[in-house]
Write a structure and sequence with these properties.
Length: 676
């Protein structure tokens, strides 16, 4: 079926290009300028005086005289045998090959018949030249002289603007600069439905109501209810916000008008507002329909917070027009505006109020069951091995969005093809996950024995601390093969939970600093530069505990986290210098406590760590089974359960809105600790 459909596709016909016509016209004009009037048919010849002409005629050396009466110009063709005789005198030593050879000009009082008749009368009949008297009609030449150049200018002008209109960016050309460049998908063209959207259970339920509004508006208006004007899809990149909006339009069987927020932004004043007006004009004409504005934060940023712009910023004018238009049409107009963004905190409050975007639909990262559905969608076209285990792959991709999962499937197929395999196995998918998370392996990187030894002890320190501390996630794999910018990596299997306790955060920081401590122990206390990313995350967690979560006794239950973005570009700190000193001292105290605790843990288990590091040097990659054999069962009440089954304790889409994004990302994504 697939081959048949491909064969039936019609090859698009190429349009006629006027470029060749313009080039020919320009070439013709240049030829006219350098060659003279093409309608005269003249060939460059030597100019002589009338007295010379009479002398040549009387000598019998002239074969023919062509005289143009209204130009008062004569053209002389010499006899072939006489050309050599006059080569030095008239032609600079060269013999001309084409006639006429000479030209002469006379005054308006010149009587051609009388003068030529008098000359011929003095010659014998065989020596007389042939005289042809004509009259040149200059009408066509004069018309072309007057019309050609203006016509050429007009054609060049049209050609220039055709080019601008063809590739003029968002505005579709200079003449359409104020028109909305949205793409309209008609009812017949948009065939995306909710069946094509895997996962997103909560978001689907909310948008299904919008579909019902468009299909059965009287059901709600009969009770006095107003149909919502807009819905704002909020969520991380790649979670399927655009696909969900298309599914709403396809399910409701209405036109779908999509546009990007950046399409409204233009260097010309007033263009953005004009495009907003045109967009809503088109939407009303197509009603009932759905208008989808992707990345609305490009135009909907809170007013007064655009650093470096004045109050007359073009984006603010565009936003004002958008606010006016969303208030300007009634709830019964059949137009529903949907928008998507992953930066809802910077949007203007007036844009998000009820009456404009009545609903905010949170599209979160998929949990385990949703990831299984997404994998099933992308696995349809892949040739899988009979031993393929979907549950195992879904458990190894926590925190991945739909776009990440699609990338993993593609990388697995590419990896299997590179190995000349006929089917794709679980190992190919696991390698693809490693490549997406950690980067490509740098197998040809040259590492000295000392570097490899330090890297092995560094990663062994991460693994031992992560395995023995109850608050840490189970270690999945440890590798000292350089990958991406890291010399070694430790993979964890994160638990998909929403909140973290203080003890769990302390254990997490212990596993981060364990790599550096193991390096120092084996290197006689000399630190190396390989713990940069570990320290970055360590400092971020410690700062979050003190500044955001109120986990410091000296600072107290105070949070300086700005979830609303109200401070904008305010560079001042929300606390005094004295408080800043207290915060710095508390962060250092937490880091010192973590360092001391981790040092004791590693020294107490140094024999196991040393054995693990030597195994890493030998095998370069070790798995969970090796850790279990050396260190025993995973510490913690959930250790063995989470290794056996990665069922989430709480769904990922139940995250609280006041949890900072930096910490949410660290808890939900596949974590790696590296030696850079």
């Amino acid at each position: 079926m697939a081959e048949k459909n491909n064969n039936n596709k019609k090859t698009p016909k190429k349009g006629f290009s006027f470029t060749w016509i313009y080039m020919l016209l320009i070439a013709g004009l240049i030829w006219m300028v350098f060659q003279g009037d093409p309608f005269k048919g003249a060939v460059p010849a030597t100019k002589v005086e009338w007295e010379d002409v009479k002398e040549l005629v009387l000598k019998g050396d002239v074969k023919q005289i062509d005289f143009v009466r209204n130009d008062f110009e004569g053209r002389i063709t010499l006899r072939q045998e006489c050309l050599t005789k006059y080569a030095e005198k008239y032609f600079g030593g060269q013999v001309p090959r084409k006639s006429p050879h000479l030209t002469f000009l006379v005054s308006s009082s010149f009587n051609a018949e009388e003068m030529f008749g008098e000359l011929n009368g003095q010659l014998p009949e065989e020596s007389r030249p042939k005289v042809v008297i004509t009259k040149n009609d200059h009408m066509l030449s004069r018309v072309m002289e007057w019309i050609m150049f203006p016509l050429l200018l007009v054609l060049m002008w049209v050609f220039m603007f055709r080019g601008l209109n063809r590739g003029g960016g968002a505005g579709n050309g200079v003449f359409n600069v104020g028109k909305a460049p949205g793409r309209l998908a008609d009812k017949k063209d948009n065939k995306v439905t909710f069946k094509d959207v895997a996962g997103l259970y909560g978001a689907k339920e909310e948008v299904m109501e919008i579909v019902d509004f468009l299909k059965n508006p009287k059901k709600y208006t009969a009770l006095g209810a107003k149909i919502p004007k807009g819905a704002l899809l909020v969520g991380p990149p790649g979670t399927g916000k655009t696909l969900l909006a298309k599914a709403v339009a396809g399910e409701a069987n209405v036109p779908f008008l999509s546009i990007s927020g950046s399409d409204f932004v233009e260097m010309f004043v007033g263009v953005g507002a004009s495009r907003v007006r045109d967009l809503f004009k088109q939407a009303k004409e197509k009603a009932p329909c759905i208008v989808f504005i992707d990345e609305i934060d490009a135009v909907g940023r809170a007013r007064g917070k655009n650093a470096g712009f004045s109050s007359n910023d073009e984006r603010e004018n565009t936003l004002n027009q958008l606010l006016t238009e969303m208030d300007g049409f009634g709830s019964n107009s059949g137009v529903i505006v949907m928008a998507a963004t992953n930066r809802a905190d910077i949007l203007d409050k007036a844009l998000m109020r009820a009456g404009r975007f009545d609903r905010q639909i949170h599209v979160t990262l998929p949990d385990l069951n949703e990831r299984k559905e997404i994998f099933q969608v992308h696995l349809k076209k892949l040739k899988l091995d009979q031993t393929f285990d979907l549950d195992q792959i879904a458990k190894h991709t926590p925190g991945m969005s739909g776009a990440d999962i699609a990338n993993v499937c593609n990388e697995a197929a590419l990896g299997a093809a590179r190995k000349d395999k006929k089917t794709i196995s679980n190992d190919d998918f696991l390698e693809a996950v490693d490549r997406v998370v950690g980067g490509i392996e740098r197998k040809k990187t040259i590492m000295s024995k000392d570097e490899k030894r330090l890297t092995a002890y560094h990663e062994a320190g991460h693994a031992v601390a992560g395995w023995l501390l109850p608050g840490c996630d189970p270690v999945l794999k440890v590798s000292i093969i350089p990958r991406g910018q890291a010399l070694g990596l430790t993979w964890y299997l994160p638990d998909e939970k929403v909140t973290w306790s203080r003890s769990e955060m302390m254990d997490e920081m212990c596993s981060l600093v364990a790599g550096r401590i193991a390096e120092q122990i084996v290197n006689d206390g000399v630190p190396c530069t390989g713990a940069l990313s570990d320290f970055e995350r360590l400092t971020s967690i410690a700062k979050s505990m003190v500044v955001y979560y109120g986990m410091s006794e000296k600072v107290g239950n105070i949070s300086y986290y700005d979830s609303t973005g109200a401070r904008g570009y305010d560079l001042t700190k929300p606390y005094s210098e004295k408080t800043a000193e207290v915060i710095d001292s508390e962060i250092k105290a937490i880091v010192d406590e973590v360092t001391e605790r981790t040092t004791k843990l590693l020294k107490d288990n140094w024999e196991s760590l040393d054995k693990l590091a030597k195994l890493l040097i030998e095998k370069e990659v070790i798995m969970q089974e090796d850790l279990k054999e050396i260190l025993g069962p995973k510490a913690g009440k959930h250790g063995e359960e989470r290794l056996a089954s990665a069922e989430p304790e709480q769904p990922a889409d139940e995250q609280e809105s006041d949890t900072p994004a930096v910490e949410t990302t660290e808890t939900n994504e596949t974590k790696t600790e590296s030696n850079e």
